[in-house]
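Let us work through a complete example step by step.
Step 1: write down the sequence.
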Amino acid sequence: MWRIALFLIFTLVAVPVATYYYDEPLTDLQWATMKTLLWVYGIAAGICFLVSTITDNFSQVDKLWSVIPIPYAWITAYYADFGPRVTLMAVLVSLWGARLTFNFGRRGGYSWKFWTGEEDYRWSILRARPGFEQNWKWILFNLLFISAYQMGLILMMTLPAVEAIGSDVPLGIWDYVLAAIIVGLIIIEFLADQQQYDYQQKKHALKKEGKELEYPYNLGFTHTGLWGYMRHPNYMAEQGIWLVFYFFSVVATGTWINWSIAGSLLLVLLFKGSSDFSESISTPKYPEYKRYQKEVGRFLPIKKKFVGKK
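Step 2: predict the structure and record it as tokens.
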């Protein structure tokens, strides 16, 4: 895991630098926007590190994942004097953030004591694995990867809005097409999360009542609805949202590749690693999961619909 984390941290620096030097220099207005965003990022990452270290709850970044892109987007819109394209992008980010925040909140992610709330079960599993025997190693991992890298990635995901600042290309049909695609992906993400939530709620309710689990709950993992066609439909939609978000900068600049592409590319890498880790937990836990992996695509419906054994 250390090697993966260090590779991701390296890409967080290398990819933006490489794409920046490939592209046109930032304008003074874009630099002023970036400086403000970097201040917000530094403060947020520092708070996440301190709070998680003190409370031993390492889901502080998770709490901000869906929240902080909203101020990032509106700060950018402010610097852009609320130009139509950047404002549209900020509205879409707000819509995305509101839905994801709702989903995280109903699963117990938030509490009136902001430093508490349910911690992602994967952190405790990861912390117990070889490589984190000494506490200082976990603290360093928390600083570099959980806090600095993930918070940096969240910022980078929103940077196509900065690239769109000052564009003389008027808002047009392609902006509306991109907006419609993002709304569609948000709906898919909502449906996937709702199906997973309903499945897990029902499964745990049956267990609590002491009843025997019958199909489909006896398999233990969500595999119906969208999950019958993709193993991670919510991850697919999440990646798709930010990849499409990048194309607003393409419309604004008229160039297919610019420096703000780094965030969406790094997000794809993160979800590849995250899904690998999640599945490494699910495979030994659920007997049917290996068959599920063989029969169903990870992020795309490229195989066939999964049919569990009743």
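Step 3: interpret the result. The radius of gyration is 20 Å.
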